[in-house]
Amino acid sequence: MIRWKSGLPFLCVCMAGSASWARGILSPLGPVAEAQRAHLITVTAVTMVAVLPVLIGVPLILWRYRRVKKGVYRPDFEYSRGLELAMWGVPFVLFVLLSILLWRSTIALDPYRPLGPDPLEVQVVGLDWKWVFLYPEQGVATVGTLVLPEDRPVTLKLTTDTVMQSFMVPALSGQIYAMPGMVTTQNLIADRTGVAEGRNMQFNGPDFAQQTVRTEVLTEGDWTDWMEAAASAPVLDVTSYAELARAGTIEDARLQFGIAEGPIRLRLGAPDLFSTIVDRYHRGQPVPASAQPGAPGYQPEALR
Amino acid sequence: MNQVSLGLTTAGAALMMISLVIGEFATGGWTNYPPYTGAVFSPGVGPDYWIWSVVIAGIGSLMSGINFCVTIYKCRAPGMTLMRMPLFVWTTLCSAIMLVYAMPPITVSSLMLALDRVLGFHFFTNDLGGNMMNYANIFWMFGHPEVYILVLPAYGIWSEIASTFSSKRLYGYSSLVLATMAIAVIAFTVWLHHFFTMGQSASVNIAFGIATMVIAVPTGVKVYDWMATLWRGRIRMTVPMVYMTGFFILFTVGGLTGVILANPSVDYQVHNSVFLVAHFHNVLIPGVLYGVLAGIHYWFPKVFGFRLDERTGRLTAWLWVIGFSLTFLPLYVLGLQGMPRRLPSFTEAAYGPWVTIAGFGALVILLALTMLFVTLWVSIRQRGQLSVPLGDPWDGRTLEWSIPSPAPAWNFATIPVVRDRDDFVARKGAGQAYEAPARYEDIEMPRPTYLGLTLCLAMTVMGFAIVWHIWWLALVSFVIVPASLIYRAFLPESEVEAVVPAAVVAAEDRAWRKAIAEARGVTRDEEDSPANCGLAAPEGEPA
Amino acid sequence: MIHRLYPGLNLGPAHGDDHAEAEPVIFGFWVFLMSDLITFGILFATYATSATTMGRAGGPGPAELFNLGSVALQTGALLASSLTCGLAALAVKHRLGSGTAVGWLIATMLLGTMFLGLELRDFHQMIGAGATPDRSAWLSSYFALVGLHGLHISAGLIWAAVMIGLLHRQPEEGRTKQRLLMFGLYWHFLDLIWIGILSVVFLAGLA
User: Fold this and answer.
1) Spans of all domains in chain A
2) Is B494 buried (19+), middle (13-18) or exposed (0-12) by CB count in 10 A?
3) Domain ranges of chain B
């Protein structure tokens, strides 16, 4: 609550429209977010046709027909066919137009629609209060950092091992829910290098605010180097995952793996970790609080 | 039945207050989504308070809904055809119908969550086939109609205010009725837009997105109808009209962002963000809260017999408009910057200035709230000067203004025969507004009863007992409910109903008519002066 | 007052003012029943979504648990009780004496108790076989849906007992007749719900 005060000196700068206030969807890193921003602007513009008459007309009417002015007075005026037609007709035409736009953009921006051949698959696991990213092909795992190559389609497969969460990197694409025992999909693509913030958008407890994702888009070469550097990193296997799954922040994960700074980069020791996590809810046996990551009664030993 | 529903609503509210005072309430937000609120993740009593408050208050709301439906369908005065009803009655009827159909989902989903928590059922748990997506669906089958349940009566209030304070017939009555009905029906077909992001197919999202957007059409028509009502009127900028001005401008902005949010592709970005928070406050505060405050100013003299002070009232209204704009409009920017709702702290510098403005706006709202109580206090102190015993302080158009203020317990001494939509205006125009009835009759009234209070206490205790798993107490307090109903059933009719003799009614009514005959009708110039005792000189005639 | 009398269950003009006064009350009760129908509708929908392999979560299913013979008996008892309940309403409408009405109501209660007893026996056997409501989502929704209907029946039995008392004490009061009409609506409504349960839960479950 205190830290934002450091932002106060920027007040004037920000109001003047400096780059620092253009975050998320306002400064996209890829075509999906760009299309979403364009759609937002189109919809706003079209709807203005219906909105502006009210914003302009109401003050005019209130002024023109204020009582003391003793203007034209038609106390029995209650119906006009032309006016009725316009009142129903114009919004209806706008509605039809907007529906067509909605239809097309929803299909074009469907998160399940692949954005090109040979997508990079990244598996995303939501925990309390951090995101874990698994790169099964590269044998790499990260916590709180998503590193993506430039210009390559990405398919995120999302689940959680706790309560429902909602994953979003606004500069790249919209959000999608991640739910325990279920897998959702988000396709995205980054067409320029850079850094963007992402986070969980669905409240999930005390340290909800800390559940952010630093998203880095690297060139293909840099990205490959980044991935290869994980070979000497600490390992994420079933045992260390069980410990990581305990409710805690990214800082707690740093302590666990002994990585004081920089991205938490790990070697993925269990290639099918993702499906293990999802399938655990479908074994036909109860998952007691002791075996439920995120629950106050969780015991890592019960998960191993 | 009215009393019982009020009692149950009070019990629900009491339970919530108790939890705020003596410990913890649910942290799951107003939707209380599991599995976060399930027993595994929230073993405390917080969600239980939420569940039982909602269930008990929900039953009260359901009963109110039934009561209004029956009263409006079956107990209208002679000549009061459906298409002569004041628009406020229409919107209340639609709201009541919606209550009847929308309350069961929330009651059921809450009770299912309670079964999960208390008895280990698996409706919404992570394991053994439970599915939290069912909760989201059932909750929003209530949750979306609910916002229209809130806003429709306010639409009715706006309709009454627009025509009264511009001294004009309401424009587009049939359109307004049609639009209200359309909204009430469509409201049940859009619940999925609260979770476009749950991973369903694009075609499902398209269907619900378009259904959502179509609501904007009848809503837009309503706003245009009110504008047309003001057009070529004699507009008086009274307190309700100040609220209405704020409503017009701000609600339209809320409508715009509603259309934006109806687009799944944009919703992916701003869902769960403060953009959404800004949107629903943008429709609910100017739409519902301003409407209720305007309605209170409008009908206060009818209920309590004196007007509210105009000067402080107007100041309050402007403070509400300014406070709202400062608080919630910055949230749109923050939402586009990706700031989630319910964020307890942040480090992003970009949020700083906007949050500061919103925080300042919240202070203005606090001031507005304070001024609201000041208005009440000032008015109560000056109630002698503000009193309007003759009953018609605003040159009213509908029949409630044709009786004394405060209204007698039996409301109308004789049941009027309705001939016109603005029946009171028609009568005033024909000079028949205060014709004494030929004869008076006995009036049958329900006797006062302790039933509502009993049930209120019993349900509060029951809720508390269930939250704390004190099963014997829950059982005892629950048994009180059917027991008191059965007891009442066995009371003889004379103990349930009382008769007011015709002579009593006649004496009071004649005294009032005598006062009318002696009073001077005031013009709208003197509306805000002590001369206004509630007898109006019609507008449009020379003073 | 506007009195548009709906067809079907009513008192008939022989009852004077009672006939007209019953109108808003009975109408209100219809509205309540529609609301209750939504309640059941949601439980039906929940049942339908959990009647899957995933919803059964490896636990026992309809084939091992349902006893169609008992269900058929329950259905018969409930349908017959609706008939006796209707006869009680007719006895009041045609002024056959409160004794006749009370007799039919007692028959209704007996049949209702029989239904409830059989249902409880089935529940008992299911729980004995390990099919408790906390075993799977499917069993949770089964017990919620069928159990809620059973709770409604229990409330109806208490109501029937109260009606017998009222018919005994104040048989000619308009309020008593109104309540009997409402009871009739309620009881027939529960029949309707049961037919839904029979089709969706038992017959479809074993199909």
Assistant:
1) 31-108, 120-282+291-303
2) exposed
3) 1-236, 264-387, 394-442+501-543, 450-496
Provide the pLDDT for residue A27: 86
How many Cβ contacts (< 8 angstroms) between chains A and B? 317
Contact A289 B43 (CB under 8 A): yes
Low-confidence stretches of chain B (pLDDT beneath 50): 541-543
For chain C, which residues make up each domain, given as ranges? 34-206
C138 CB neighbours in chain B (<8 A) are 129
Q: Which two tokens stand for residue A28?
A: 């996209």
Question: Which of helix, strand or coil describes residue A218?
Answer: strand
- The model's pLDDT over C117-133, given as tens digits with 9 standing for 90+, comes to 999 999 999 999 999 99
**How confident is the model over B276-312, as pLDDT tens digits?**
999 999 999 999 999 999 999 999 999 999 999 999 9
Confidence of residue C9 (pLDDT cuts 50, 70, 90): low
Q: How far is C60 from chain B (nearest CA, A)?
A: 12
Q: Which residues pair with A198 in a beta bridge?
A: A213
In three-state secondary structure terms, A193 is coil
Confirm or reject contact between B210 and chain A (CB < 8 A): yes
The residue type of B91 is: T
Question: Positive or negative, the Cα torsion across C133, C136, C139, C141?
Answer: positive
CB contact under 8 A, C141 and B486: no
**CATH class of the structural domain A120-282+291-303:** mainly beta
**ipTM for this model:** 0.92
Q: Which residues of chain A have pLDDT under 50?
A: 1-19
Per-residue pLDDT at B31: 86
Give the Å distances, CA to CA, from C35 to B61, B66, B107, B192, C25: 12, 9, 11, 21, 15
What is the model's pLDDT at position B263?
96
Could you name the CATH architecture of B1-236?
A: Up-down Bundle (1.20)
**Global pTM?**
0.92
User: Dmax over Cα atoms in chain A, in whole Å?
Assistant: 86
Alpha-carbon distance of B494 to C88, in angstroms, equals: 27
CA distance A293 to A162: 6
CB contact under 8 A, C140 and B103: no
Chain C CB contacts of A285 under 8 Å are: 58
Which chain C residues touch A183 with a CB distance below 8 Å? Answer: none
Which class is domain C34-206?
Answer: mainly alpha
Nearest to B214 by CA among A51, A91, A105, A101: A91
Q: Which residue of A has its CA nearest to B169?
A: A76
Q: How far are the Cα atoms of B448, B491, C90 from residue C21, in angstroms, in the given order?
A: 21, 18, 18
Q: Between A and C, how many CB-CB pairs are < 8 A?
A: 7
Q: Where are the beta strands (DSSP E) in A110-193?
A: 120-127, 130-135, 140-143, 145-149, 154-160, 165-168, 176-178, 184-188
